[in-house]
Amino acid sequence: MKDLLRKGLSFGLGLAVVSREQIEKFVDEMVKKGEVTSSESKDLIQDLMDKGEAQRREMNSFIHSQLEKMLKELNVSTKDDIERLEKRISDLETIVKNTENR
């Protein structure tokens, strides 16, 4: 499960890098064709990158919610569940030690 998550995140990061390179290449071609001026190109690149970043955040949020849903359906214990149980065990051990010392 963790490996799948790591691969998904790496894939997303790879897409972000490729997207920037492709956006710059695309905008450079538009400048060469005279469809966009050099001064407009920087703003266009930034605008496209901002939109791509917003979509990436949206995709990450969707993936996160789907993973949470899947883990809940599989009844997998969360880190919070384990920490709560560890605290409870520790509290019970303290009670037992105090009872034995009386």
From TrEMBL:
It comes from Desulfosporosinus acidiphilus (strain DSM 22704 / JCM 16185 / SJ4). Keywords: Coiled coil. This is Polyhydroxyalkanoate synthesis regulator phasin. Residues 68-102 form a coiled coil. InterPro entries: PhaF_PhaI (IPR008769).
